[in-house]
Amino acid sequence: MLPHDMGRLFEQASARGRTTTVHLDRPFDIAPEAGRRHDVTTLAELVRAASGWWVAAGARPGGRVAILKDDHWDVDLLACAAIRAGAVPAKLSPHLSAETASALLKRLEPDVLVTSPRVLGRGVAEGVDLASFARTTVSTAPAPGTVSLDDLRGSTPPAPQRRDDDAPLIITHSSGTTGVPKLVVHSTRTIIGNLARFEALPTPVVGMRRDDVVATASSYAHGRTFSWTAATISAAPAEIVVLTSQDPDRADPLLREHPPTVFEGLPAAFVRFRPLTARLANPFRRVRLFISTYDAVHPPTLRAYLKASGRKHPVWLDGWGQTETGPLTFRLHHRSSVQRRRARAHPAGRPVPLKTRLRVVDPATFHPVRPGETGLVLARTRALCLDYLGETERYAAKKRGRWWNTGDLAIRGRDGSVHLVDREVDCAAEGSCLAAEDTLEERLPHALECVLLARADGPPLPVVVTADGTLSDHAWRHACHGLPEMAEPVALTWDEVPRTGTGKVRRLALLDRLTGSDDTYGTGRWT
Q1: In 3D, which of 292, 284, 231 has the Cα closest to residue 266?
Q2: From CA 502, how far away is CA 267, in angstroms rounded?
Q3: Which homologous superfamily is 433-515 in?
């Protein structure tokens, strides 16, 4: 059973006798002395204690509190603790630039900011005092101008606070691939009632089981991990494995010690962990279900993981959606469904049943287009967020009645399936950048990632990410044969590519860095 009260999620799971064991790749920043192994009861005690820290620091019922610390699952524990204290938590990625983080903190006007010395230090290096944007700033370790978390330990926890299902529950932010992220406000009804509750259903094949070992390698400042936390703690699998690093050599020992049966990761994590699939005793040998969200995962990566599983019929669940809506479509892949083939667009599957309706319309007239034609995707879902904090007009501009403008271009098949073309802001004059990236990665097996950057004044610029930042002329000539016209490729290493906290390429920033301009072929009206 999924509780509606996220402030008491862990307490209620403990009261029901849940026996899930949690394994961390490093201790929580908010409880370093507690080690890397926890059970539901110790997590419930930690959330309860943290709610007292929030109150002692000055969090008020209905007030906003910001969490901007090193990436770990304790971000979600702090969010649950803030909700228990009656406050509205806002989760911010530690990968944001100081300038961007300060812009979001100005909108939030938080009572309390919880941060860490590393984040504060990066802000100072960029000329920004992040501690100045809240009435009280708490640091997980001593730092100038802050209250140390150790000084708040032992504070009396408040009685759990309840709120209306349609009141703001949590604030997260969009990925920020095209500029300053939007602050996305969700309620209990939208993110728990219509997202987490749906995920927690005992669905055949993709539902969690009591004997599962569920591993995640995510961005814990994202809204996805909040709903994941609700669904996973309620489903009570045998074990949970939490990874905070995308370094395969750091992840490998924990995954080998607790080989997962369900593995969810950022697309970037799947790319970085892929070398592990080729090891003799690879840690994915027991996985029955892979789950990817946030961004497209290209076919070669899917094949590598499905092949690595020792299960007879492993499945890959691929979801497309947005921070504002949660998943909109899903697709189940198996070994035979990801064989090499050319396509006009990147297949995204079908609308989530009982939850989502989609329309594909002409971007100029908003009239429906015929199946097989490219158009702008409108979505209708009860999980739509309440607003953009501080940007209500921007939010209203993306709504057409009960329909939400996703800003994505897609093709709707006659069977109802959806094939993504590109973000409208990232689209090219001819063809699909996403589909071309699929093909390039098929033909360049040594590439970690291929990115096609559409430009306003010329053919798209291909960027090929390799381990050493090199690409041979022969390999490129083979890879681009038969594809639409492209500029000469640029080869980069992984760390040379600007990314969001979820590992998405910041395409406009990369385009500007390589060409001196971020002008794209698309209009960007619906970012």
Answers
A1: 292
A2: 8
A3: ANL, C-terminal domain (3.30.300.30)
